[in-house]
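We modelled each protein-ligand pair independently. The example shown here corresponds to the adenosine-5'-triphosphate entry; the chain sequence is given first, followed by the ligand as SMILES.
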Amino acid sequence: MPRTPSAVVSAVLVTLMVVLAIIGPPIWGAAAEKIDAGAILQGASAAHPLGTDNLGRDLLARVLVAGRYSLVLALAATLIGAAIGVVLGALPSVLPRRGARLVTGTVNALVAFPGLLLAMFTAVVSGMGARGAVLGIGVAIAPGFARLTQTLAASVARADYVLAARMLGLPRHLVLSRHVLPNIAEPLLLNLTQALGGALLGLAGMSFLGLGVQPPDFDWGRLLFDGFGRIYVTPEVAIGPVVAIALAGIGFNLLGDTLARRAARTAVPAGRAEPEPPPAADAAGVADPEAVLEVRELTVAFPGGVTPVRGLSLTVRPGEIVGIVGESGSGKSLTAAAIGGLVPYPGVVTHAALRLSGRDLAGLSQKELGTGLAMVFQDPMASLNPALRVGGQLAEVATVHQGATRAEGLRRAVDRLGHVHLPEPEKQARRHPHELSGGMRQRAVIAMGLMGDPQLIIADEPTTALDVTVQRQILRLLREVVEESGAAALFISHDIAVVGELCDRVVVMYAGRVVEELPVSSLAGGAAHPYTRALVDSLPDMETDRSLPLASIPGTQPAPALVGEGCAFAGRCALATPRCAAELPPVVEYGKAHLVACWEVT
Ligand SMILES: Nc1ncnc2c1ncn2[C@@H]1O[C@H](COP(=O)(O)OP(=O)(O)OP(=O)(O)O)[C@@H](O)[C@H]1O
């Protein structure tokens, strides 16, 4: 059901156009063709509300009848454009390098060429009339489709399942048709709707220029062309086709926008088996009144059976800093992204519960999310707009979400920048992000999170890009901010030593699952899972012989698409038995505030 005003408007307009195309010719067809020598070139009257043409035919009836032809021509042009575009866009994936470069270069040149000129040129070359105009508009639309197909195909090409198919030696055209095209079909279809609106306007333009539909046929553009010569004497004769063209163009463009927005929100991959449905509502249970963040059975899946986060549960309580630790690729960042609603398309997030202070995260407004949840990422430049001054960006949180004036917002921004110990905060607020050092930028991002009233701060590897001294300062700042603001924090890191220093509790992830959760105080000596123990053992201490290479865990973590039935760590585990590889160990209690998933220690 459409919900936003633009969705309602687009649904009404498009339905109207389709109904008109179906019922227009049978109902008003005869009136549109009826020649009346006594009513030639008349203006508006009761009998002819939009006037008549040079043969005395009723213009209102002609506008209503022309809808079908206009829509059919636009649909044909769009399909031609999409077909040429998808072929051109997909070719670089199957051609040898040189051919691919040639096609890409041609597409780039065509994208830069004005569409209407391309359409006019093609129409003139292929013969004036409806066929030439349709071909012309089709050719003008094609480069846009080609560029979109290329970009989408390139983004899917790096997915694990495409790499796996390539490594299996599948021919390129099969990789393209089986693995790439089905996964980019949905955005292409959405683009088709928007292109239909553009084609309608383009065809009307061609007919208006005299290059399109020729008499005795007529579409809205042709009616506008005929009426335009009389626009100063009887302007109403041009109004009908103008209104029809505008409404149809707006309707299809808005429909494309609405569908694209909806698809981005639901992000269900096209043409692929969908991941398991979310567990039944009652599995969510009752909200934990103690929890700032409650995550139950969180799963993040991508097309092709890639499930990098599998049934993850965790709880963060007020004032607590919980660390998520794991090797690269264990699913830490996707967990953070899923909590923040930032999993990129075409990822699908399912969960039994995802609550912030007892409230379903999906039900929170942008304002509640913007002020209640602060996200700090590894690269502060990714969170700061390089074109804006730091103070202005921070102030935006207050002006957009809290209804503050710009002056109030700026005052609060300077105050928050001082709070995170940026020297001379007024001066820093006037600077652009590139004028600050990496550590200062990260402080500014933390200050941005503090502009609201965050209940939870999610910090995803916030110190990885910084040098060791600055790392320590930022970690100290995070602890201070949590203590002062009363917020809780979820701290993500691959470094168990850093987690051990900063956090109260640690959640250890391996290949998308929680394998152990324990208080940080139990890490040294109290860890139960062989993986956690190996992580702790790989840390150097005072007695480590620094002349020897650091201990590391032999083997590698399996890629998300290659995780088997049982424990994903079994292949690297010294304690593994045949049961470990065959059966998934459940996460069970192992002493006070301690959970573990391992057959051999429970
Ligand atoms: N857009 C995507 N499409 C398909 N797979 C993805 C996508 N994003 C991430 N993945 C897969 O999910 C897995 C987990 O990624 P994630 O970034 O959460 O790991 P991580 O533990 O944070 O690692 P790192 O420390 O390297 O960031 C990776 O193996 C990656 O291949």
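The radius of gyration is 31 Å.
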